[in-house]
Amino acid sequence: MNRLAGDKQFKSTLYEKIVIPNVDKKMRIFDFGAGKMAYVKKLKKEGHNIIGVEFYLRKLGTNTINTKKVVHLIDVMIEDVKENGLFDVVVCDSVLNSVDSMEAHESVINTFRTLCKPD
Hints:
By secondary structure, this protein is of the alpha/beta class. 40% of the residues lie in helices and 11% in strands. It contains 4 helices and 3 strands. A 3-stranded parallel beta sheet has the order 2-1-3. Strand 1, helix 2 (38-45) and strand 2 (49-53) form a beta-alpha-beta unit.
């Protein structure tokens, strides 16, 4: 889905109804599986402390994964956690419905749970 980009703007129900109404600018937010980073860019522009990683980010106009950019996004996230600790909010929108096994489902959940503050 091309969220908040291009001619057809599809909005994320999760972001619009749950995330945006419940976060404030003091919270550290991480978008796990951020797609084309549209909501990350939108919230960052509004002054929110948000970063995101999309593991299948494509090179513009191709179906090839932009490995260099993906590694960069992961490096930014790792440095952020080292400097600031775990996140207040981790968003996982339209990720679990795209996995192909229960093992992958559990791996996704366990991965993003490790990035959340205990409370």
